[in-house]
Specification:
4 strands; alpha+beta; 135 residues
Length: 135
């Protein structure tokens, strides 16, 4: 599946980038499906996001790629421990591509706005706050 077009900012669609193997991902998907908006859901446990797309997402979110990784996640700590400071941007991309479970929450792209959701109920608050912009 080519997701470059899906990541584009479509005014009639909300994009959710999530991991279906995490409880945050499953719950956020449920909330997103309930929204009154066309949803493009990208499950990173099944669909590979390219390095360019991860870099693009980080830029849209005004974050470093490292900020997208839950550095306290058990798998991350087990594999990298105290070596995180030594990782390059390319290394961080490879971490996200090879260990999708370490994505910090979910990413919502709505028009030109992008946010990270770490608590599924935050999506509900976001949708209520932006109800007019969403329609």
């Amino acid at each position: 599946m080519d997701i470059m077009g899906i990541i584009a900012e479509d005014k009639n669609q909300m994009t959710l980038i999530y991991n279906s193997e995490t409880s945050v991902g499953k719950q956020t998907l449920a909330y997103a499906n309930a929204a009154d908006k066309t949803l493009a859901a990208i499950d990173i446990s099944k669909t590979k996001v390219t390095g360019t797309q991860w870099a693009d997402l980080a830029t849209k979110l005004d974050l470093k790629i490292a900020d997208l990784v839950d550095q306290e996640h058990t798998d991350f700590v087990k594999n990298f421990g105290d070596q995180a400071a030594l990782l390059s941007s390319e290394d961080w991309i490879k971490v996200l591509q090879n260990q999708p479970e370490v994505l910090k929450g979910c990413i919502i792209i709505n028009r030109k706005e992008s946010i990270v959701i770490t608590n599924p109920s935050d999506l509900v608050k976001y949708l209520e706050t932006n109800r007019e912009a969403i329609k």
